[in-house]
Design a protein that fits this description.
- The complex is a heterodimer.
- Chain A has ten helices and no strands.
- By secondary structure, chain A is mainly α.
- In chain A, helix 1 packs antiparallel against helix 2, helix 2 packs antiparallel against helix 6 and helix 5 crosses helix 7.
- The longest helix of chain A has 29 residues.
- By secondary structure, chain B is of the alpha+beta class.
- Chain B has a domain of 53 residues: Ubiquitin-like (UB roll) (Roll).
- Chain B contains two helices and three strands.
- Chain B has a three-stranded antiparallel sheet with strand order 2-1-3, with helices on one face.
- In chain B, a hairpin with a 7-residue loop joins strand 1 and strand 2.
- The longest helix of chain B is centred in the middle third of the chain and has 12 residues.
- The chains are: A mainly alpha, B alpha+beta.
- At the A-B interface, helix 2 and helix 6 of A face strand 2 and helix 1 of B.
Chain lengths: 227, 95
């Protein structure tokens, strides 16, 4: 197999933006997760995602002659390349949150595995490091999905949540990766992905603008400051 | 929700020592939380994750010391005085 070309800056920004925005959304559970242990674990996962975002922004920043912070916080809301799945504000609904977590981690594993075979050693090395942390995220997502599916009410809610988010989740991946993604749902025996039109990148969810506002508010309060 | 006790091994071959406890609904959750709390920063080589109810606790686990048999305890053999005398003899007494 020949090595694929290094990822484009656009792809690096997609990955970085997805991780940053999901990290933010997951961090909205800090302090209000269902129980203390989960609060610590989910907050930690949120932090890890933001760490991955930082690493992708740094790679993109070298290409673009800027900094990771400038990419993360100084762009206008329309310039972000995040998928709508990560932009949705799901706080208060743990079932939807776990559905997104499972779908995101499963899709992410597919694209990160491709990056691990990149001809760019920087990208491949970063992808391998990320894989080791994402393995924990997948284990966490799977155990929660299985747990919620143990009761009748839980199963109907997690199945409805997965079906609702499936079109958004498809938007995380390239067309060529989506069949593989659908096959991975076999690990959720209670769920069959619906036929649905993918929600593609480019547009943004209505929840995105208020989040962007919050995320960048301190940075915008003192433009150009050294922190 | 059950309580699980977590024991950490810092290095390969080192004894496992109690790290703390956590609450989790089943073994998979206990595994995930134990890794998160005790393994995330590579501070452990291995973990033992034990449901608290699997632990047998004995309280006041002594055999009643009816007779004075202090000499059978390790700390019964006091070397302090002998050591002091030996040091004085050798001229290496501690100040």
């Amino acid at each position: 197999m020949s090595s694929p070309a290094p990822p484009s800056v656009d792809l690096l920004l997609e990955l970085a933006d997805d991780e940053l925005v999901l990290g933010w959304r997951d961090s909205e559970w800090t302090g209000i997760a269902p129980f203390l242990e989960e609060d610590v674990a989910f907050s930690s996962i949120a932090q890890t995602e933001i760490g991955h975002a930082r690493a992708f922004y740094e790679l993109a920043a070298v290409e673009l002659g800027t900094t990771a912070d400038a990419l993360a916080f100084d762009r206008s809301p329309e310039e972000y390349r995040s998928a709508q799945l990560v932009e949705l504000r799901l706080v208060r609904d743990w079932g939807l949150t776990i559905a997104r977590h499972w779908l995101y981690e499963t899709a992410d594993a597919i694209r990160i595995a491709e990056l691990a075979g990149s001809s760019s050693e920087d990208v491949a090395g970063l992808a391998r490091k990320i894989q080791s942390e994402e393995a924990y995220h997948r284990m966490h997502a799977q155990m929660w999905a299985d747990r919620l599916a143990e009761s009748d009410e839980g199963r109907s809610r997690i199945v409805a949540a997965l079906a609702e988010l499936w079109p958004y989740a498809l938007g995380l991946l390239d067309g060529s990766q989506r069949d593989r993604f659908a096959e991975e749902t076999a690990r959720l025996p209670f769920f069959t992905p619906p036929d649905a039109e993918p929600v593609e990148r480019g547009g943004h969810a209505p929840d995105w603008s208020p989040l962007w506002d919050e995320m960048t508010t301190v940075r915008r309060s003192a433009p150009g400051s050294a922190w | 929700m059950a309580v699980w006790e977590v024991f950490r091994q810092e290095r390969e071959g080192a004894p496992f020592q109690h790290g703390g406890s956590l609450e989790a609904p089943n073994a998979a959750f206990a595994d995930a939380y134990a890794r998160e709390f005790y393994g995330r920063r590579a501070e452990s080589f291995a973990l033992w994750i034990v449901p608290r109810e699997a632990i047998t606790e004995v309280r006041e686990p002594y055999v009643a010391p009816v007779f004075d048999r202090d000499y059978r305890r390790v700390d019964g053999y006091s070397l302090k005085i002998k050591l002091k005398e030996a040091r004085e003899l050798a001229g290496t007494s501690k100040r």
